[in-house]
Design a protein that fits this description.
Helices cover 28% and strands 17% of the residues. It contains five helices and six strands; from the N terminus they run E-H-E-H-E-H-E-H-E-E-H. The protein is globular, with a radius of gyration of 15 Å.
Protein backbone atom coordinates (compact mmCIF):
# COMPACT_ATOMS: atom_id res chain seq x y z
CA UNK A 1 0.00 0.00 0.00
CA UNK A 2 1.33 3.40 -0.96
CA UNK A 3 -0.26 5.25 1.94
CA UNK A 4 1.25 5.33 5.41
CA UNK A 5 -1.07 3.44 7.76
CA UNK A 6 -1.50 3.41 11.52
CA UNK A 7 -3.50 0.82 13.40
CA UNK A 8 -4.41 2.33 16.76
CA UNK A 9 -6.41 0.32 19.25
CA UNK A 10 -7.75 0.16 22.79
CA UNK A 11 -8.13 -3.32 24.22
CA UNK A 12 -8.87 -4.51 27.75
CA UNK A 13 -9.14 -8.24 27.09
CA UNK A 14 -6.75 -8.55 24.12
CA UNK A 15 -9.57 -9.41 21.68
CA UNK A 16 -9.30 -6.07 19.86
CA UNK A 17 -5.50 -6.23 20.14
CA UNK A 18 -5.43 -9.53 18.22
CA UNK A 19 -7.47 -8.00 15.40
CA UNK A 20 -5.26 -4.90 15.36
CA UNK A 21 -2.24 -7.15 14.86
CA UNK A 22 -3.98 -8.97 11.98
CA UNK A 23 -4.84 -5.64 10.35
CA UNK A 24 -1.23 -4.55 10.77
CA UNK A 25 -0.02 -7.74 9.07
CA UNK A 26 -2.38 -7.23 6.13
CA UNK A 27 -1.72 -3.51 5.68
CA UNK A 28 1.92 -3.41 6.82
CA UNK A 29 0.79 -0.54 9.05
CA UNK A 30 2.30 0.58 12.33
CA UNK A 31 0.66 -0.44 15.61
CA UNK A 32 -0.16 1.95 18.45
CA UNK A 33 -1.93 0.90 21.63
CA UNK A 34 -4.22 3.51 23.17
CA UNK A 35 -3.50 3.04 26.86
CA UNK A 36 -5.36 4.83 29.62
CA UNK A 37 -3.18 6.89 31.98
CA UNK A 38 -4.88 5.00 34.79
CA UNK A 39 -5.25 1.36 33.70
CA UNK A 40 -8.65 -0.27 34.06
CA UNK A 41 -8.99 -2.97 36.71
CA UNK A 42 -11.46 -5.84 36.46
CA UNK A 43 -13.67 -3.98 38.94
CA UNK A 44 -13.51 -0.86 36.73
CA UNK A 45 -14.79 -2.91 33.80
CA UNK A 46 -17.71 -4.50 35.63
CA UNK A 47 -20.58 -3.28 33.45
CA UNK A 48 -23.11 -4.87 35.81
CA UNK A 49 -22.03 -2.44 38.54
CA UNK A 50 -23.46 0.98 37.75
CA UNK A 51 -20.85 2.53 40.05
CA UNK A 52 -17.87 0.99 38.22
CA UNK A 53 -15.48 3.33 36.45
CA UNK A 54 -16.52 2.20 32.96
CA UNK A 55 -20.23 2.54 33.77
CA UNK A 56 -19.71 6.05 35.11
CA UNK A 57 -17.65 7.07 32.07
CA UNK A 58 -20.19 5.68 29.64
CA UNK A 59 -23.10 7.47 31.34
CA UNK A 60 -21.25 10.77 30.95
CA UNK A 61 -20.75 11.34 27.22
CA UNK A 62 -18.43 14.26 28.00
CA UNK A 63 -16.07 11.92 29.89
CA UNK A 64 -12.58 11.90 28.38
CA UNK A 65 -10.28 9.45 30.17
CA UNK A 66 -6.67 10.55 29.91
CA UNK A 67 -4.36 8.65 27.58
CA UNK A 68 -0.93 7.55 28.79
CA UNK A 69 1.00 8.45 25.64
CA UNK A 70 0.47 10.62 22.59
CA UNK A 71 1.98 9.91 19.17
CA UNK A 72 4.40 12.62 18.10
CA UNK A 73 4.32 11.66 14.41
CA UNK A 74 0.57 11.47 13.65
CA UNK A 75 1.04 13.90 10.75
CA UNK A 76 2.98 11.19 8.87
CA UNK A 77 -0.07 8.91 8.54
CA UNK A 78 -2.64 8.99 5.75
CA UNK A 79 -4.96 6.25 7.04
CA UNK A 80 -5.73 5.64 10.70
CA UNK A 81 -7.52 2.50 11.80
CA UNK A 82 -9.07 2.95 15.25
CA UNK A 83 -10.01 -0.23 17.13
CA UNK A 84 -11.97 -0.71 20.32
CA UNK A 85 -14.50 -2.89 22.10
CA UNK A 86 -18.13 -1.77 21.99
CA UNK A 87 -19.33 -0.55 25.38
CA UNK A 88 -23.04 0.25 25.71
CA UNK A 89 -23.53 0.24 21.91
CA UNK A 90 -20.79 2.82 21.29
CA UNK A 91 -17.03 3.19 21.57
CA UNK A 92 -15.50 3.74 25.02
CA UNK A 93 -15.02 7.45 25.69
CA UNK A 94 -11.24 7.00 25.69
CA UNK A 95 -11.59 6.70 21.91
CA UNK A 96 -13.09 10.19 21.83
CA UNK A 97 -10.07 11.33 23.86
CA UNK A 98 -7.77 9.79 21.24
CA UNK A 99 -9.62 11.33 18.28
CA UNK A 100 -9.76 14.75 19.92
CA UNK A 101 -6.01 14.67 20.61
CA UNK A 102 -4.96 15.10 16.98
CA UNK A 103 -5.78 17.03 13.83
CA UNK A 104 -7.06 14.48 11.33
CA UNK A 105 -7.48 16.96 8.47
CA UNK A 106 -7.05 15.19 5.16
CA UNK A 107 -6.89 11.72 6.72
CA UNK A 108 -8.96 8.59 6.30
CA UNK A 109 -10.35 7.14 9.54
CA UNK A 110 -11.34 3.47 9.67
CA UNK A 111 -13.05 2.41 12.92
CA UNK A 112 -13.17 -1.28 13.76
CA UNK A 113 -14.59 -2.94 16.82
CA UNK A 114 -15.31 -6.08 18.78
CA UNK A 115 -18.25 -6.87 20.99
CA UNK A 116 -19.39 -9.51 23.41
CA UNK A 117 -22.95 -9.25 22.19
CA UNK A 118 -24.02 -5.85 20.91
CA UNK A 119 -23.79 -4.35 17.46
CA UNK A 120 -22.09 -1.17 16.30
CA UNK A 121 -25.05 0.94 17.44
CA UNK A 122 -24.39 4.69 17.21
CA UNK A 123 -20.62 4.32 17.10
CA UNK A 124 -20.03 6.28 13.89
CA UNK A 125 -22.39 9.06 14.87
CA UNK A 126 -20.84 9.47 18.33
CA UNK A 127 -17.23 9.24 17.17
CA UNK A 128 -17.23 11.25 13.98
CA UNK A 129 -18.03 14.44 15.92
CA UNK A 130 -14.69 13.97 17.71
CA UNK A 131 -12.78 14.25 14.44
CA UNK A 132 -14.78 16.44 12.07
CA UNK A 133 -11.82 17.28 9.80
CA UNK A 134 -11.15 13.77 8.57
CA UNK A 135 -11.58 13.70 4.81
CA UNK A 136 -12.84 10.15 4.58
CA UNK A 137 -14.68 8.48 7.46
CA UNK A 138 -15.32 4.79 6.81
CA UNK A 139 -18.24 3.05 8.56
CA UNK A 140 -17.31 1.22 11.77
CA UNK A 141 -16.85 -2.49 11.15
CA UNK A 142 -17.65 -5.16 13.73
CA UNK A 143 -14.94 -7.81 13.35
CA UNK A 144 -15.83 -10.47 15.92
CA UNK A 145 -13.94 -13.68 15.18
CA UNK A 146 -12.61 -12.29 11.87
CA UNK A 147 -9.93 -14.35 10.17
CA UNK A 148 -6.98 -13.00 8.23
CA UNK A 149 -8.91 -13.77 5.04
CA UNK A 150 -11.92 -11.78 6.34
CA UNK A 151 -9.61 -8.86 7.13
CA UNK A 152 -8.00 -9.00 3.69
CA UNK A 153 -11.42 -8.87 1.98
CA UNK A 154 -12.59 -6.01 4.19
CA UNK A 155 -9.40 -4.00 3.55
CA UNK A 156 -9.70 -4.62 -0.19
CA UNK A 157 -13.30 -3.37 -0.16
CA UNK A 158 -12.29 -0.22 1.73
CA UNK A 159 -10.36 0.92 -1.34
CA UNK A 160 -7.85 2.88 0.68
Amino acid sequence: MAKKILISYFSCSNVTKKLAKLISEVTKGDLFEIKPAIPYTNADLDWTNRDSRSSIEMKDHSSRPEIEEKLSNMTEYDVIFVGFPIWWYIAPTIINTFLESYDFSGKTIVPFCTSGGSGVGQTDEKLHVSCPNSVNWKPAKLLNRATKSDIEKWIENLAI
